[in-house]
Amino acid sequence: MKVLVISHEYPPIGGGGGKVVQDLCSGLASHGYQIHLLTAMWGNLPKKEEAGNLVIERLPSGRMQSFRADFRAMASFVWKSFWRGLKVIREWQPDLIHAHFAVPSGASAFSLSVFTHTPYVITAHGGDVPGGAPEKTSGWFRYVLPLSKPVWKRASKVAAVSNQTRQLALKHYKVDIQVIPNGIDPASYHPGKFSNIKAPTIIYIGRFSPEKNALAVPQVMVQLTRLDWQCIMLGDGPQMDEVKALVTENHLEHRFTLPGWVEPSEVTAWMKKSDILLMPSLREAMPMAGLQALAMGLAIVASDIGSVPDLVKNGENGFLVKPGNLNGYAEVLKKLLDNKSLLENCRLRSREMVTQFDMRRVIAAYEALYQQALKGKGV
Is the domain of 179 the same as that of 37? Predict the structure, then answer.
């Protein structure tokens, strides 16, 4: 089967959603699917790459930040991916279009389907759904929402990465939505060895933005200065200066490492040095960082939201905390830092749990979705 995939995020740009697209495309290609991906250009990356059944084509969209695409960049990507997609469809004749992120890629897939009668499926990742990330998208969803409804309605099939994303979407789009969680390949991750001698390392991975609650990390860790620990914060975003200021004000410079935004390929190297993933998000769908933490055998301290409870079993591989409860995060971190045996057991349990999210299951679910899309009316 030939599949034209459209996604404005793909490593090294974007967050966890882009990594999901990468893993799924690679997995489908290894299963014999011919995949042609249209994504956004960034820096000096090659315009086109080919690896077996996978072709990656990057289009200029005026993207200014690796970790975030503004509305203008997304609108530009819709325009560029439509015209390039039109040529690819006419020359290559794919069986199906797969749009990752209902906004912006869904608009491109919709337009291509209208012009070429090629059926398409959508995967909603969270922030592309009204209410998924209101602090970032509520302003422009007031204008985009009416235009997005035909995009969802015309899709042959729609998937969401979590039940939370599905429920948010159903408030606005009266379509059938199937939940297909993000997946991971456990065999490609190699956890570091646990040491009960060195200071445990806590890691935060994600945008430094309000919905990810990056400011909570130094606010929590300052409560634990009497204990031995180190903290790594990977990422960048609008709250970076505030995070740095909190670290400096509380004299924690010798405890914190802030490398900035790193490429997805570098994330696991940092995780290998770590013991605990701290994820104090106020909103999450199915976080890729959580899946990677399972695969890397990290204990997880996270907010009790979205699909996070699927990744964390209280007292087994980590702890769930009410979103925004700084004292709650500090309390459970103290348990792990005080009790090395508990920390080691949580790490071992995470590695056991990752098999539930094996990418092979996710690929099988998408294969079934593709077949259903082609059997249906499509257009």
Answer: yes
